[in-house]
Design a protein that fits this description.
Helix content is about 65%, strand content about 0%. The chain is mostly helical. It has 3 domains: about 50 residues; about 100 residues, no CATH class; about 110 residues, Serine Threonine Protein Phosphatase 5, Tetratricopeptide repeat, CATH 1.25.40.
């Protein structure tokens, strides 16, 4: 099954590259519409990743959050500033292989994940063959699978999904992030800001109300809601928009938001 899905990914890449080249060359409106439909279909197929398509994570992989003593070992040899900026590679002409290697040893290396995303978007827009070994979403899937408690990786994945109009999947990651974050002010703020990006103002507002309870001096999320015309003061006797009595024993505020 995994081999079949990899074949689908490769065929879709070829289709997207071919369509992009034809579009640049100038074709009829009907052909353009057909090409757009094919590209959209293949892009959807490319978005369907799983552990089978993304492959195993090495048992000796390092956690970007804590294994800081290995940063220089990997970054000096592979993830240099020109690689991160997609200018050139460190071990070869192209940056893709160095980014891929970095993410093989540090699956949750946030900056490398973002660099892989920018590279994939640039290549797709230019109709070029991917330099990366995996579909770009795999790097997000692997990071979360590697360390499910890495809330930064999970929020990056939510942003990635949201930008690709996969809002329900994005919200699922945000709910899990909030469940794990409990009352961490910085994480609550970032969860709310991602909800803002998704234009899910109701959930952003509920998170903002909770944030004001644990960090009243934090103005960022409330300010974003005010600017969007979506701010409402919390109603007395509620927890994250749910009547306090309804929360009951065993139903924490974070649990109410996660359901």
């Amino acid at each position: 099954m995994g081999d079949l899905l990899v074949m689908v990914h490769e065929e879709c890449r070829s289709t997207i590259v071919s369509v992009a080249r034809r579009l640049r060359g100038g074709i009829s409106r009907r052909a353009w519409s057909l090409g757009a439909m094919l590209t959209a279909s293949c892009s959807a197929a490319l978005s369907q990743v799983s552990p089978a398509t993304c492959g195993p994570v090495s048992p000796t992989a390092w956690d970007y959050r804590v294994d800081k003593q290995f940063y220089a070992l990997v970054e000096d040899a592979h993830f240099t500033p020109p690689v991160e900026a997609l200018i050139r590679g460190r071990t070869g002409q192209l940056p893709g292989p160095d980014i891929d290697y970095t993410l093989s040893v540090f699956p949750n290396h946030y900056r490398a994940i973002m660099a892989a995303t920018r590279l994939a978007e640039r290549e797709e827009s230019q109709g070029r063959k991917s330099q990366l070994k995996l579909p770009v979403e795999c790097y997000y899937e692997r990071a979360v699978r590697f360390k499910p408690d890495d809330l930064v990786a999970r929020m990056l994945y939510a942003q990635f999904l949201g930008k690709r109009k996969r809002e329900e999947e994005a919200k699922s990651h945000l709910r899990e992030t909030q469940r794990r974050a409990k009352d961490n002010p910085l994480t609550l703020r970032n969860i709310g800001l991602v909800y803002m990006e998704l234009k899910d103002y109701d959930n952003a507002l509920m998170v903002a109300h909770r944030l004001l309870e644990v960090e009243p001096a934090d103005p960022v999320l409330k300010g974003a809601l005010v600017s969007a015309g979506k701010w409402r003061d919390p109603v007395a006797g509620t927890v994250l928009g749910v009547p306090a009595a309804a929360s009951g024993p065993g139903n924490s505020a974070s649990g109410a938001a996660a359901n």
